[in-house]
């Protein structure tokens, strides 16, 4: 996209979609870029279906719990937040009025929320955060899909991105170390939750789950399924904002 094309696209849409993920180890069978690959796939479809502007972002995220494992690159929170702030600020100055962040890494969430609330307050624009990994977990739960680190749903995302990158033949039987699932549930609870500071608290080799649940056939509609779930959530947010705006207009003298 040229500069002129970018200006025209933002003038038409006023909405940008950013993929946000991380670069971190995913066991012997998935690439370090699993999270950003998943985020990019979903963000691209979301942008296309909204006629919004897809805006590439940094592939790195806040992932200190994976630090020290070969291939992992973690940013400090202040680095990630500064980068996200600068990118979003430039997009807003260029004409963006709605910023949609499509994320596939829970370690980014606190920083994303901090940046979004700060910039929304400062510039009067709308920020929406879509936790696509959690959307995928909900949508595939009834089929037996689990959002474990390096497990079935993440393998499905890699197969959808490029099936040659998923090397499930390198792992044997599904693995579920005692307490791993419970620790994941604990740290992801929306109510009362605790923390882990090293991924080996889940599993000694840094991953667990059932990669073999994912198949090439099942992966063919992964992007569409998850993007549809994300879009439904975006519509809920936008509907709430429209209701609020209409009420404010009615209250105006």
UniProtKB/TrEMBL annotation:
GO terms under biological process: riboflavin biosynthetic process
Domain of life: Bacteria
Cofactor(s) needed for function: Zn(2+)
Entry annotated with the keyword Hydrolase: yes
SUPFAM superfamilies reported in the protein's UniProt record: Creatininase (SSF102215)
Gene Ontology molecular function, alphabetical: hydrolase activity, acting on carbon-nitrogen (but not peptide) bonds, in linear amides; metal ion binding
Protein keywords: Hydrolase, Metal-binding, Zinc
Keyword Metal-binding: yes
InterPro entries: Creatininase-like_sf (IPR024087), Creatininase/forma_Hydrolase (IPR003785)
Any Pfam family hit: Creatininase
Recorded family membership: Belongs to the creatininase superfamily.
Name under which the protein is recorded: Creatininase
